[in-house]
């Protein structure tokens, strides 16, 4: 089955053609369909901000590395147990979680699925003609959610998980740093949560404007504005109760500590360079301000709620740029250019039975 993959390790932004990371299309064998498995004919797979990190060898350097974890599609085949014990049927429009939580290891039994000891067993690339996942990874899309919107279930689950980690209260002041897809989705989720003074911190003007269209009350351009002064002004000098980093930018992350209110929470909700270390003044930030600092690895227990939210979010702007599978290398070049908030690959031309 044709699969989009990293075919040479390297930065996709490397100006040198000879050393630049490469994206290609490779032919990988289908995974066998186990009794509890579901084979999905993939409709759409969205490019994720983390995919270029895979090209850089963050999770290993043996190429080809198959890509794609933000997918939607149609059920093509079901194992016997999956057919008997789930509501899934052939022809269902679905999306899902690229990770399977095994349910039997100690972390799974202890309410910490994200640290499942078998997390990688079913982590199979979805930017492909088909993908075979365990039934527990697969969610049927509501009738009024299109396949194109459905490929945003996974990033929406990340936004839900970020919201969980903030432990936000209705009325809390909230700032989000980074107006990429996760930041934009987190913004809408936090708006629905009753966030106030909702602020997007983002250097790209288009992304600030997008945030303003979808619930941000304020925007800060960290490259032009006096960020602490603006935050002071917006929050009446108190700071934000919740600060979320969705930028993953080493330049941006330290300054966020100073925007948080006393007793506030800062969620580092992105991936960061493996060798990056952030200075932390324990006296100022943890002793005097009692900040809670936390992060997000993967999204346990978040998919059912993300599925509920999908139809309520304004996500059209994230699905406007679509390339066919064979043009995936070009789609990745467009993704790293940052010209569009999100780039989607059409893996098969499927009829969409959505009622929307
Ligand atoms: Zn992702
Ligand atoms: Zn487990």
TrEMBL record:
A matching Pfam family: ADH_zinc_N
Species whose genome carries this gene: Georgenia alba
InterPro entries named in the record: ADH-like_C, ADH-like_N, ADH_Zn_CS, ER, GroES-like_sf, NAD(P)-bd_dom_sf, Zn_alcohol_dh
PROSITE patterns: ADH_ZINC
CC cofactor: Zn(2+)
Protein name, entry field: Zinc-binding dehydrogenase
SMART domains assigned: PKS_ER
Coiled coil (UniProt feature): none
Annotated Enoyl reductase (ER) domain residues: 18-345
Family assignment from sequence similarity: Belongs to the zinc-containing alcohol dehydrogenase family.
Keywords (A to Z) from UniProt: Metal-binding, Oxidoreductase, Zinc
